[in-house]
Amino acid sequence: MTTCIYADDLSYALQKIGLESRQHSPSQQTRVAQGHLSFIELQKGCYLHRANIVENSNTSSSAILPAGCHITVLLAGAVSFRVAQKRYHFSADKGPVAFVNIVNKQDIFTRFMQDGQPVEKITLSCERSWFLQKMASEQACQQIDKQLFHSQNVYITPLTPLLLQQAKTIANHDDSTPFLAPLLLEQHALALLYNVISQFYHPDSKPNQAHYSHAPVQASEAKLSALLLLLEQDFTLTDIADQLGVSISTLQRNFKRSFNTTLKQYVKIKRLEKARKALLIEGLTIGEAAYLAKYTHVGNFITAFKKHFGITPMQLIKLHRNTTPEQA
C-alpha cells in the first residue's frame, strides 16, 4: 500500500532526526511524493533514509547539513541535488549507482524533485562528530579528518556486488519485529558504512569525484532558498554571506530585489511570528517571547508586536484562551 507524502510530512520527518529544513512548495499541504519514505535514527548522529517513491511535484527541499558523510545507493530512478554551490545529477537508468557526499563543514543541501520521477534509494548519514567519538585516539581522529573531511566533495564509489547486496538488504528490510529489527538494520547499515569508508583508505580503490554543474539562474534560486533557511536559524549576516559566497552588500541588494523588503525588516517580522507561535503553542511568557525575538526591552517588543499584528501579546493570549463564544 502506497502513502501520500506531503511537504509537512517531510519537514516533520527531518525534524525528528535533528535536521532543520524548509520545503519550497506552494503550501505545507502540497503532495510532494507517493510511496514509502522513512528516516531512522540508528544512533545519535547516525541515521538512515530509505525511499521508494514517485515524486509528485516540481519543487525542492533544503536542509542544513552538519559536517558528515552521506552514502547513497540509488537503486532505481534519478536524483538531483545541490551542495556547496554545485549541482549534481545521478541516474540509475543503466543500473544502480553509489555516491558519497562528504560535508566537511555545515552547509545547505537542496534536493530537487520532479513530477513523475521514480526514486528508489537508501542514504546512510553519519556526522563527523559521530566518527570522532568512535576513534580510540587523537591520531585516529586526525587520520579520519585527513582521509574523509579534508574537503567538501561528492564522490562516485565503486558499487561492488557486496555493497549492492547490502544496500538491497537495507532497502527491503523487514521492520515487523519491534525489538530485533532495529538491531539487525543497524548491523547491516554499519557493515555498508565500513565497506564504503575503507575505500578511502586504499589509494588503488579511492572513489573519484563526481561531475557537477553550475547553472547561474538555478544557483541564484538555490541561494535564495538557502538564505531563507539560514535566516530562520538566526545566523548573522556575516555568517550567511560567508556561507553563500557573497558580500553583505550584494546579499542585501539581491534580497531587496527579490522580496521587495529589507533583510532587517524581514528578520524582524520572522522573529515576531516566531514569538507569536511561542506564546500560543509553547506557552512562553511575554518576557520569554520578547527575549526569543531578540528584544532587550519588553515594552519595545509589545509595541512592535501590536504594530505588526494589530493586537498586544496579552490580548492575543486572552483571545485564544477564551473558551466562550464572543458576543456579536
TrEMBL record:
InterPro entries: Homeodomain-like_sf (IPR009057), HTH_AraC (IPR018060), HTH_AraC-typ_CS (IPR018062), PchR_regulatory_protein (IPR053142). The keyword Cell inner membrane does not apply. SMART domains: HTH_ARAC. Residues 221-319 form the HTH araC/xylS-type domain. Keywords: DNA-binding, Transcription, Transcription regulation. Pfam families: HTH_18 (PF12833). This is HTH araC/xylS-type domain-containing protein. It comes from Pseudoalteromonas aurantia 208.
